[in-house]
Write a structure and sequence with these properties.
By secondary structure, this protein is an alpha+beta fold. The chain has one domain. It contains five helices and four strands. β1 and β2 form a beta hairpin. It is elongated and about 70 Å long.
Amino acid sequence: MQSSIAGKLSILSALATCVLSGIVYLLALALPVYNLANNDPFYGIMVLFLGWMGPFVNDAGNPIGWYANLFLVFGWGAMLLGKFRPLAIAAVIALVLGLGIALTSFGVTRLPVNEAGMVARVTIGAGVYAWLASFAIALLGSIATAVLAFITAKRAPQKIA
């Protein structure tokens, strides 16, 4: 009975975490992630579509933060299937790695502004903080899901062959 309750709590915890993290992520897409020197914003949605090119742009400070999104999506998926202990652990690991990669976004000081290769200085906008908050929410929720998965596994009845 108790393992059943812990299992349901694990699923509900994962679902609530993914929904809340997803809402904050969507908010980050609507906020300015970077502000150019002339006060033009780079919104999160623009960075989502163009950020994968960051490492290939010579004079952009080699930003790799966009790739953290892959870890976030994997973390959400693994968390939703987190009643299986290996996936619960994988979610925590993926989100820790993703958060580490996401933090490299603070190292971006310039971005390309046109096809001619011109770059402009940038400052960090509110979208980066919302994006990092979505990681933090997902990470805390994945830890809770992993703990509940371990509780469920320990209390599950053992079958004797």
